[in-house]
Amino acid sequence: MTGRISPRQFHEAGGVEDWRALFGGAQAHFRTGSYPAGLALVAAIGRLAAAADHHTDVDLRPESVTVRVKTDDLGDLSERDVELARLISAAARELDIAADPAAVQSVQVTIDALVHPEVMPFWRAVLGYRQVGDEDLLDPRAAGPPFWFQQMDAPRTERNRLHVDVFVPHDQAEARVAAAIAAGGHLVSDENAPAWWTVADAEGNEADVATWMGRD
């Protein structure tokens, strides 16, 4: 079964407790403690992904491995992602490697634009990114954050037109908002919560703390 599913359906599938659906797919973070343990997990993930003929992004660090499963460039999910996520979690358990679901996040830069074709070529050139569809620029190396161009109907002069979207696990969002406020920020809007909260620093520079809950 390979049909597309929503983030909610991913979480309701069962067996994916290590994983959190974010923008760009579903992620798991495994606390390996060392490079050798991380390399063993990466090798297992590689074998599973190859056998499933399904794409994964893997980030190996000295004491951790973060892995993302997704069905397309923009991070849509399918039942194949559920199946592969379950297998990866099982491999981690066999290696006695624990997951830390609270540690995952995904960051996106959003630019408000009146005429996308007039501004996207500049950002594509200066970043060395590739364009996907009419609104998105992606790093071909999957190292930098994606850029999304939000359609505006009129110039917005009272607020900044470039902000950061920080996608966090749905069960971590309110704590992240509270931490931002405690660190000197303030709440701009929570009218779209729990899909996202808009916060700003002391000088009004904004960020959205977002979850999958607006993407059903």
How is this fold's topology laid out?
Layout (H helix, E strand, L loop, with lengths): L3 E2 L1 H6 L7 E3 L2 E7 L3 H18 L3 E6 L2 E6 L7 E2 H16 L3 E2 L6 E8 L2 H12 L2 E3 L3 E3 L8 E5 L10 E6 L5 H10 L3 E4 L6 E5 L5 E5 L6
Parallel strand pairs: 8-11, 12-15
Antiparallel strand pairs: 1-6, 2-3, 3-5, 3-7, 4-5, 8-12, 9-10, 10-11, 13-14, 14-15
Helix pairs in contact: 2-3
For the report, how would you describe the main beta sheet? 8 strands, mixed
Give unreliable regions as ranges.
none
Rg, alpha carbons: 18 Å
Mean pLDDT over the full residue set: 92
Report the sheet-strand fraction: 25-35%
The shape is globular
The order of strands across the largest sheet is 9-10-11-8-12-15-14-13
The helix fraction, in percent, is 25-40%
Enumerate how many helices there are, as a single number.
5
User: Based on helices, strands and strand pairing, what is the structural class?
Assistant: alpha+beta
N-to-C span: 20 Å
Order of helices and strands: EHEEHEEEHEEHEEEEHEEE
The beta-strand count equals: 15
Structure description:
By secondary structure, the chain is α+β, with helices and mostly antiparallel strands. Helices cover 29% and strands 31% of the residues. It contains five helices and 15 strands. It has helices at 7-12, 35-52, 79-94, 116-127, 173-182, and strands at residues 4-5, 20-22, 25-31, 56-61, 64-69, 77-78, 98-99, 106-113, 130-132, 136-138, 147-151, 162-167, 186-189, 196-200, 206-210. The protein has an eight-stranded mixed beta sheet with strand order 9-10-11-8-12-15-14-13, with helices on one face. Strands 2, 3, 4, 5 and 7 form a five-stranded antiparallel beta sheet that branches. A two-stranded antiparallel sheet has the order 1-6. β14 and β15 (206-210) form a beta hairpin. It is globular and about 55 Å long. The model has no long low-confidence stretch (mean pLDDT 92).
